[in-house]
């Protein structure tokens, strides 16, 4: 007799993380993930915003059909969650989705409108970094005051530059300021000399990369749900395999969904450097038994800080900006 599946998702109520090896199929009205080691878990497909599959997860045709019917995107990750191997985004038929994409392509083809849309993302990211730096300043963390001053200067420069390339330069400089602040705030035992992405070197870089990948996939799902073309963005360059718009939409959330989560995990002892391993070609990654722990922790952080609603607000503002002939909203609030 087959084991009766648990009727609950293992992580967040809106996102289902299926950590392979295993099989994702259906049983009655529910989708069921059956891991190679462990009990099967079932969930109703209509309650999900996103399904994330890690490593070797075999998807049945019935499961694919069910998720497409429900309009639920599926993201296929490497086993360590560091790379996205592919994504399945259900089509959004109808004139409203087609009209929205027409407006998106028209705005991105206009250099002035594209610049203003990109400026909004950079300003919102700088504001979020400034808010986080101000909280660290109140707690007496070293370097927070100097970082906040530099982030305010970056915000002023972002309001003044006249090209997307210049905005990228301002954003990159602000990111370096932010990462230096993170490094100064980490407790002893954690080492973070600089941001290294491909491959991530050291446990802190591994956590930053994992959280960054998760928030971009969440943004891709939210954009696809509105009928936007996730591969056509304004701040990030458009290139094959990159969900440029999802990367844009994720920027205002990175300070909270990536940086502050990483600080909390490290400084509160929810993970330790011993929970990571080195791979000759893949860099630093979480040990297999610690990987689900980190996913669950990130989902809790996402829910507690109401980041789903904040992401929906970013997407809604972007859609509204596409309908404005001026291209983007105003200057926003300084850090």
UniProtKB/TrEMBL annotation:
Keyword Metal-binding: yes
UniProt KW keywords: Antiviral defense, DNA-binding, Endonuclease, Hydrolase, Magnesium, Manganese, Metal-binding, Nuclease
Keyword Transmembrane helix: no
Superkingdom, taxonomy of origin: Bacteria
Residue sites binding Mn(2+) per the record: 171, 236, 251
InterPro entries found in the cross-reference section: Cas1, CRISPR-assoc_Cas1, CRISPR-assoc_Cas1_C
GO biological process, one term: defense response to virus
UniProt EC number: 3.1.-.-
Cofactor requirements of the protein: Mg(2+); Mn(2+)
GO molecular function, one term: DNA binding
Family: Belongs to the CRISPR-associated endonuclease Cas1 family.
Subunit structure: Homodimer, forms a heterotetramer with a Cas2 homodimer.
Annotated function: CRISPR (clustered regularly interspaced short palindromic repeat), is an adaptive immune system that provides protection against mobile genetic elements (viruses, transposable elements and conjugative plasmids). CRISPR clusters contain spacers, sequences complementary to antecedent mobile elements, and target invading nucleic acids. CRISPR clusters are transcribed and processed into CRISPR RNA (crRNA). Acts as a dsDNA endonuclease. Involved in the integration of spacer DNA into the CRISPR cassette.
Name of the protein this chain belongs to: CRISPR-associated endonuclease Cas1
Organism field: Alienimonas californiensis
Organism phylogeny: Bacteria, Pseudomonadati, Planctomycetota, Planctomycetia, Planctomycetales
């Amino acid at each position: 007799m087959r084991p009766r599946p648990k009727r609950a998702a293992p992580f967040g109520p809106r996102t289902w993380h299926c950590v392979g090896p295993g099989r994702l199929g259906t049983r009655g009205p529910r989708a069921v993930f059956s891991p190679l080691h462990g009990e099967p878990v079932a969930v109703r497909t209509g309650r999900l915003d996103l399904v994330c599959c890690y490593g070797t997860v075999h998807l049945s045709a019935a499961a694919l059909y069910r998720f497409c019917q429900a309009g639920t995107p599926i993201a296929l990750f490497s086993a360590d969650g560091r790379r996205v191997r592919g994504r399945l985004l259900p089509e959004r038929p109808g004139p409203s989705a087609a009209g929205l994409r027409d407006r998106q392509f028209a705005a991105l083809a206009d250099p002035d409108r594209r610049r203003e849309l990109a400026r909004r993302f950079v300003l919102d990211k700088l504001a979020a970094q400034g808010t986080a730096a101000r909280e660290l300043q109140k707690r007496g963390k070293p370097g927070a005051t100097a970082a906040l001053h530099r982030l305010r200067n970056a915000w002023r420069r972002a309001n003044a530059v006249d090209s997307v390339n210049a905005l990228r330069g301002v954003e990159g400089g602000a990111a370096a300021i932010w990462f230096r602040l993170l490094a100064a705030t980490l407790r002893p035992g954690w080492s973070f000399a600089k941001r290294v992405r491909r491959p991530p070197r050291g446990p802190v870089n591994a956590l930053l990369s994992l959280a960054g990948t998760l928030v971009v996939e969440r943004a891709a799902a939210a954009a696809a749900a509105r009928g936007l073309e996730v591969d056509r963005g304004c701040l990030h360059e458009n290139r094959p395999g990159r969900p440029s718009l999802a990367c844009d939409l994720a920027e205002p959330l990175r300070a909270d969904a990536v940086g502050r989560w990483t600080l909390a995990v490290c400084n509160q002892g929810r993970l330790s450097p011993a929970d990571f391993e080195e791979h000759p070609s893949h860099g630093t990654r979480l040990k297999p038994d610690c990987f689900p722990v980190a996913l669950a922790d990130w989902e809790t952080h996402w829910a507690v800080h109401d980041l789903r609603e904040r992401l929906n607000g970013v997407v809604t503002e972007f859609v509204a900006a596409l309908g404005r002939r001026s291209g983007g909203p105003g200057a926003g609030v300084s850090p």
